[in-house]
Amino acid sequence: MEPVNIGLLGMGTVGGGTVSVLAGNAREIARRAGREIRIAHAAARHYDPRRISGLDRIGRISEDAFAVVEDPAIEIVIELIGGYSPAKELVLGAIEKGKHVVTANKALIALHGNEIFAAARERGVMVAFEAAVAGGIPIIKALREGLAANHIEWIAGIINGTGNYILTEMRDRRRDFGEVLAEAQALGYAEADPTFDVEGIDAAHKLTILGSLAFGIPLQFDRTYTEGISEIETQDVGHAAGLGYAIKHLGIARKTDQGIEMRVHPTLIPHRRLIANVNGVMNAVLVKGDAVGPTLYYGAGAGAMPTASAVVADVVDVTRALTTDRDNRVPHLAFQPHQLSDMPVLSMEQVETAYYLRIIALDQPGVMARIAGILGEEGISIEAIQQKEPQEGDTHVPLIMLSHRVCEGRMNRALARIEALESVTGKVVRIRMEQLAG
Ligand code: HSE
Question: Tens of pLDDT along 390-406?
Fold first, then answer.
């Protein structure tokens, strides 16, 4: 059979890895795909030939990405430029020309996926995006196909390697935030704009995609609550550890009777859970299905070769499906497009979770009782309380509290009242807590 002609857009970290994997594993990949896969035309402004093997196998390299999209010989376009523009124009242009698309672009899919998938359906082409979430972990394949028998109840994932690396180093080595971030950037893990990593935006892109695949709802990035790790203090990491919890930056999607929770934030989780022990730049996604129970997917969430592994798997998938009936392909968002649900995404005020609180309070009789009284009046049940030693000469002490599950709106009201007490100093530190029990 004739080789499949690929057009490659971008030869940075992931693009370079894709060239190397396609060249290095060419025979094994062709045995699986049924045809040789050949990069016929690549476009890249900057690339480092010393870090890419197999450049000599590429038919033609230019700087013009639009020329690749226009090239009539190309059947599948791989978009690895990232960002919104010109990635969106290139992807829509490729679809318009009747070409299939493989992309690792989570921002593009999370924000513009609904429009892109509609255009792809119209033209009868595939858009594959396994590499957009958790790098090399085949979590999209698992959710869309492997777990197709289940009602998915919830997902909780460590889906940003840079953030996980920073939290791990803070806990284990008490290293400086900036220094660790610079290391993640050097390793090719961090986003071009690292605030996407530390402020949770990258994780929110990925969670938006996972939530849609799990529950069959349109992509709604603007409804995903996003909180980063930049405010996490080393002392809270220590207090949490003393109580048997790890602080992880999680993306959580959960289906409730009222609607769907979509939230990214630092979270206390029990040390005894496997996912609490996912450290460094590694990613993991825990998925609870009603039939299968809890399942855990672990692996490298970024980096040249792991992400290329997912890109090339998509290319193999698309190649195998080139001759299939366009109406009988795996739907982009796992559910048939006309079966997508309009179940609402809940606001954070409506979300129910447990909390870790650190309150700096005057060390005097009655203060603890007053705080506990406010929590009780708001219907918030306390699971544990600890009073830490005051610093020498200090009249205030940290009170650490764990609450039972409560609606965030109710907790907000209680915290506003606690912060207004004269005996309490500053803002209460509040970190959400999840048991993640199977
Ligand atoms: N910046 C991302 C991370 C890269 O750190 O996980 C993969 O999406």
Answer: 887 888 999 999 999 99
Atom number, ligand 1, closest to the C-alpha of residue 165: 5
Give the chain's domain count: 3
Asked whether 138 lines ligand 1 (CB < 6 A), one says no
Q: Please name the residue whose Cα sits nearest to atom 8 of ligand 1.
A: 302
Could you tell me if 20 and 106 lie in one domain?
A: yes
Report yes or no on 179 lying in a domain. Answer: yes
Closest atom of ligand 1 to 132 CA is 8
The CA distances from residue 133 to 130, 204, 375, in Å, are: 6, 10, 39
Q: Is 162 in the pocket of ligand 1 (CB under 6 A)?
A: yes
User: How far apart, in whole angstroms, are the C-alpha atoms of residue 351 and residue 226?
Assistant: 13
**What are residue 310's DSSP bridge partners?**
none
Q: Which of 339, 366, 396 is the last residue of a domain?
A: 339
Question: What CATH number is associated with residue 30?
Answer: 3.40.50.720
What's the CA gap between 38 and 22, in Å, rounded?
8
Q: What is the pTM (predicted TM-score) of this model?
A: 0.96
Q: Which residue range is the domain that position 28 belongs to?
A: 4-135+304-339
